[in-house]
């Protein structure tokens, strides 16, 4: 199972600071950030006039390395402990006099959260073999008729690591996610304005915290699938972050705040997070709940076109947009069921081994054409709807068409209200409106085409560097400093040009990102072929290489020797993967060593 693979790799972890193998609880190093990439990939601006206010979402990344609580506090310095014990009036000084972030000693990731380390204590108490890095032993058969996820989830609620979690000066992921979202909505605030974990002046808001964590889990799933669409793959770190966030949510907290939490999710229109609440409260019935939700999704009005419409071409927008949207929705359900259950009866769904999990329908190879896409959707439907494996041979199952499955489900389902019993404080009409598959506004025609479309539409970067120079009028002087294009930076998100003269500093860029983006600012210098990424939360800048290169790999336009510069596929894939997952503090070491110069002095 997916959970077994994650636990096997986690059992090999040790403190990356002291390398002590004692039984002291470990904490996973993580990084929380915000990004509006998923909202921009909806391309809602194609059907609406005027600029849109894009929604920022929280992302969590776990590098897989762990530390002891005492080691993390030692890395922050003794002054951090003094300030944490000094009362609320000293909290504003904490971010100035003591760090609130550390670097992972192994991968140099900038860490701002510490996540609880999943444990298997209850398996040991029941006398079953635990996971070992040498023998890779796992408990055979069900333990109290529970899945591995349920065992770890119960164990995490009483584990000593949950108490150690609060003893460090670095924030826990729940609180950090909540404050990251609140600061993004307010246009971005400095790190010093973020309350610390022990701040007495900040009241606890469990509903807001649970709401943010649930949506973060959904964001991790969607971001991983959007990366697959541009040619990347589902990573181990993505599954680890989903798993750790899910097991860290306490069922008691969900039950106590269920009414207000469900009301907030209904207002947000997020049916998947409602399903997530239901499965975490009653994890034994996750298979039935996922099947009900999948049935309700196919019975919705939006999926009726899968039966009545026959595609004429690859670019048939109504069917293509619906099919790729259904693929992403079923992909999220597949993640949920695969993590929370142990039994995988379909060889054509996933392959588990060597510490990796490969979902065959959730790869870029499954999106090469519409026939492959329909087959991927069909495989996931057979898994989510619990179609028995012994229902014919694999060759016979491969002949099952998507339209026949949808038609059979619709005939037996009888509508959304009958096939979905929420058992949550929501109205039936709200449930009918929540379980919908919204059609995409742009047809998906393959990995390369989709990658170039995003770069052109979102970042305003054509395939040819020469065409970009012609579009920006390279001979036109700057309207501020009267210099040529060498000091002008284009905002990739809105197309506006800003002056990068040294005497202006960063003020113009900081003011622009507050009005243009809710998360980070991304600027591109056409003349130098480089990016400038601005991080609003801690007022940092990072200079990153551009995506244009010639046939010899040369990226500087002045040294291309007459060769034309075009978008590099490998660089474009890495750039889009970092942007979608918001991995700026993970992939680029320059983020930890920000140059305190002006944008014009690169």
From TrEMBL:
<dbReference type="InterPro" id="IPR044046">
    <property type="entry name" value="E3_ligase_UBR-like_C"/>
</dbReference>
<keyword id="KW-0862">Zinc</keyword>
<dbReference type="Pfam" id="PF18995">
    <property type="entry name" value="PRT6_C"/>
</dbReference>
<feature type="signal peptide">
    <location>
        <begin position="1"/>
        <end position="18"/>
    </location>
</feature>
<comment type="function">
    <text>Ubiquitin ligase protein which is a component of the N-end rule pathway. Recognizes and binds to proteins bearing specific N-terminal residues that are destabilizing according to the N-end rule, leading to their ubiquitination and subsequent degradation.</text>
</comment>
<dbReference type="GO" id="GO:0061630">
    <property type="term" value="F:ubiquitin protein ligase activity"/>
</dbReference>
<dbReference type="GO" id="GO:0016874">
    <property type="term" value="F:ligase activity"/>
</dbReference>
<keyword id="KW-0808">Transferase</keyword>
<dbReference type="GO" id="GO:0000151">
    <property type="term" value="C:ubiquitin ligase complex"/>
</dbReference>
<comment type="pathway">
    <text>Protein modification; protein ubiquitination.</text>
</comment>
<dbReference type="GO" id="GO:0005737">
    <property type="term" value="C:cytoplasm"/>
</dbReference>
<keyword id="KW-0436">Ligase</keyword>
<keyword id="KW-0479">Metal-binding</keyword>
<feature type="domain" description="E3 ubiquitin-protein ligase UBR-like C-terminal">
    <location>
        <begin position="451"/>
        <end position="570"/>
    </location>
</feature>
<keyword id="KW-0833">Ubl conjugation pathway</keyword>
<keyword id="KW-0863">Zinc-finger</keyword>
<dbReference type="GO" id="GO:0016567">
    <property type="term" value="P:protein ubiquitination"/>
</dbReference>
<dbReference type="GO" id="GO:0008270">
    <property type="term" value="F:zinc ion binding"/>
</dbReference>
<comment type="similarity">
    <text>Belongs to the E3 ubiquitin-protein ligase UBR1-like family.</text>
</comment>
<dbReference type="InterPro" id="IPR039164">
    <property type="entry name" value="UBR1-like"/>
</dbReference>
<keyword id="KW-0732">Signal</keyword>
<dbReference type="GO" id="GO:0071596">
    <property type="term" value="P:ubiquitin-dependent protein catabolic process via the N-end rule pathway"/>
</dbReference>
<protein>
    <recommendedName>
        <fullName>E3 ubiquitin-protein ligase</fullName>
        <ecNumber>2.3.2.27</ecNumber>
    </recommendedName>
</protein>
